[in-house]
Write a structure and sequence with these properties.
This is Guanine deaminase. Helix content is 37%, strand content 23%. With 433 residues, it is α/β, with parallel strands linked by helices. Bound molecules: zinc ion (ZN).
């Protein structure tokens, strides 16, 4: 029997890239007071709020609330919830002082299982329904994350982190064992339900040339897996890369030399790239995850979105928790606005929300499945309050047009605005009364 669900709210999504303009009528689809119709977990259509669907439909009335596709966080670390908001360090010191000790715990299957469940539930409670995730170097951490994602039917990209040097005991693998683990995980998990494998070298400094080459071989052997890593995040890190790999032209070039530049490659940060690097990314069809909260919090630098996209490189948005200080993509976007403002650029509400939904889905080659509210896609969506608290309520109330209203929602909102989160038509989070 077909399962029929209808949710009434202000429906909002982005069929096209709005570009950088506030005037982008074709790209912005806003249906105030409409029903979103869902059949067997997939979006079936919409209809005006006054035309309730008949018997046989489970109807949920969220009139006066906003409904958007679930956000897609394209770079985040599951085990780093334990070190979010840690004081006083830049990247390399931050890794050694906080992150590596926290990641060591994930050798324990029970800890990996507990952490993965907490992490995915926290994503859902923040309004994020899909993510590209780093677990730890331990195979069991990837297993636990995949299992937790499958249980929730969430779209998750992840892979065992590869690191065979410059990390403490208990947090290093070796080339042969890592290869066996990756192959086993790919064979067992990639494409199973909504889980996809991503070959995941942490960054070039924590892998030997041999390990990076092995990672490249995996990408070649399994061309539909993803590849995720960090690039050009911080100036000391970039200098260190130049010492470790004197033969490479740049940090990015290290990945190119080892076969890690594919159309399914996601590079976090990319702050300290040059025009040649960007041309390489564009030609490969690879993309950059912009992590504004993290970039400011650990003092990495200001990512130039305008220049990057101007040179044809795809950009998406990411929390990068625990370097970032919130899993909320609204907070991430608000930080992104500030990073661009410091460089004389303006991030419209449309561009930001498109990028965190449909834009990310396109770059991940998943727009047939997620990112918008078009019929046939899976019903991953979030119901939001327009405002929480008197200040936001007043600001929303006096907004003169839709962009102003949505911009205020986006800038003042966070996980407290999330009313409920749905994955493939199932409610996976509901705000406590
Ligand atoms: Zn990261």
């Amino acid at each position: 029997m077909t399962e029929r669900l209808a949710v009434r709210a202000d429906l909002f999504d982005f069929p096209e890239d709005p570009g950088w303009q506030v005037e982008a009528p074709a790209a912005v689809r806003y249906l105030p007071d409409h029903w979103l119709l869902v059949e067997d977990g997939r979006i079936a259509g919409t209809r005006p709020g006054t035309e309730a669907p008949g018997p046989g439909w489970r109807c949920i009335d969220h009139r006066g609330r906003l409904l958007l596709p679930g956000f897609i966080d394209t770079h985040v670390h599951a085990p780093q919830l334990d070190v979010i908001a840690s004081y006083g360090t830049e990247l390399l010191e931050w890794l050694n002082t906080y992150t590596f000790p926290a990641e060591c715990k994930y050798a324990d299957p029970a800890e990996a299982e507990r952490g993965s469940a907490l992490f995915l539930d926290a994503l859902l409670a923040s309004g994020t329904t899909a993510a590209a995730v780093f677990p730890t170097v331990h195979k069991v951490s990837a297993e636990a994350l995949f299992a937790a994602a499958a249980q929730r039917h969430m779209r998750v990209l992840a892979g065992k982190v590869l690191m065979d040097r410059h990390a403490p005991d208990g947090l290093r693998d070796d080339v042969a064992q890592a290869e066996r683990d990756c192959v086993d995980l790919i064979e067992r998990w990639h494409g199973r339900g909504r889980v996809a494998y991503a070959v995941t070298p942490r960054f070039a400094a924590t892998s030997t040339r041999e390990q990076l080459a092995m990672a490249g071989r995996l990408c070649a052997a399994y061309p539909d897996v993803y590849m995720q890593t960090h690039v050009a995040e911080n100036r000391s890190e970039v200098r260190w890369m130049a010492e470790l790999f004197p033969e490479a032209r740049s940090h990015l070039d290290i990945y190119v030399r080892h076969g890690l530049m594919t159309p399914r490659s996601l590079f976090a940060h990319g702050i300290w790239l040059d025009d040649t690097d960007r041309a390489v990314l564009r030609e490969a069809g690879a993309s950059i995850a912009f992590c504004p909260s993290s970039n400011m919090f650990i003092g990495s630098g200001l990512f130039d979105w305008g220049r990057t996209e101007g040179q044809g490189v795809a950009v998406h948005l990411a929390s990068d928790v625990g370097g970032g200080t919130s899993l909320s993509m609204l907070r991430t976007i608000a930080d992104g606005y500030k990073v661009l403002a410091l460089q004389g650029q303006k991030l419209t509400a449309w561009k930001a929300l498109y990028t965190a939904t449909h834009g990310a889905a396109r770059h991940l080659r998943l727009s047939h499945e997620i990112g918008h509210l078009s019929p046939g896609t899976l019903a991953d969506f979030v119901v939001w309050d327009w405002a929480q608290g008197p200040v936001a309520r007043r600001r929303i109330e006096v907004a003169r047009d839709l962009h102003e209203r949505v911009f205020a929602w986006m800038t003042l909102g966070d996980e407290r605005n999330v009313v409920s989160t749905w994955v493939a038509g199932q409610e996976r989070y509901r705000r406590p009364e």
